[in-house]
Amino acid sequence: MSVRTTGPARADLVADTALALLAERGMRGLTHRAVDEAAGLPQGSTSNLARTRQALLELAVRRLADREARVLALHEMPDPAAGTGSLVDALALAAHRALTHNRALTLARYELALEATRRPELRTFFDATGARFRDQLTALVTGMGSTDPARHTLSLIAWADGLMFSCVAGSFGTQVPSLEEVRAGLRELLEGMLGG
């Protein structure tokens, strides 16, 4: 049975299906035909929307950024004046959401990140879409008195990415830490950088 969608709804359906296929089958399993079949769209629908593989990947990256912004709850990040504890709580909740309810989305992100290492045009697009979280985090640590915001932002993102990769695709793939365990790790990191 074919799904009848048009415009933005169809673009979202195609992008969401592409992300699901990336998580389930990896980069080799992502084809225009596979997206059509998995989404229940008439053959050729995905090609009409995203003619090339690069266009399909960019559509997936754009949708990934939108969905991750909701997972990370960028609109809920604390005011720097609220202190380190508030940032620990917000970041821990965001990381835990990525590890649990949004595990497939996190896995799709790693598939796209790895592909971007081999496609410079995708790397530029991937980095630009991820800049909003990095920029917001830099502003937060700056507002909290960081003496080296760029380095501290890199440390925070590297810690979170390492945790998520290890627990989604790495050697801790069967062990998801509790929210309190994520919070404890972040507290140690942030208090070391910014003070308690």
Please outline the helices and strands:
Layout: H1 7-25, H2 32-39, H3 45-49, H4 53-72, H5 84-99, H6 103-116, H7 120-143, H8 149-168, H9 179-194
Provide a quick synopsis of the model.
The protein is mainly α. The chain has nine helices and no strands.
**How is the biggest beta sheet arranged?**
none
Helix content: over 70%
Roughly what fraction of the amino acids lie in strands?
under 5%
N- and C-termini, Cα separation: 58 Å
Mean pLDDT: 90
Low-confidence stretches: none
- Please state the structural category: mainly alpha
| Number of distinct beta strands | 0
- The sequence of SSEs as H and E is HHHHHHHHH
List keywords for this structure.
single chain; elongated; 9 helices; 196 residues; mainly alpha
Protein model, in words:
By secondary structure, this protein is an all-alpha fold. It contains nine helices and no strands. The longest helix has 24 residues, at 120-143. The radius of gyration is 18 Å and the shape is elongated. The mean pLDDT is 90.
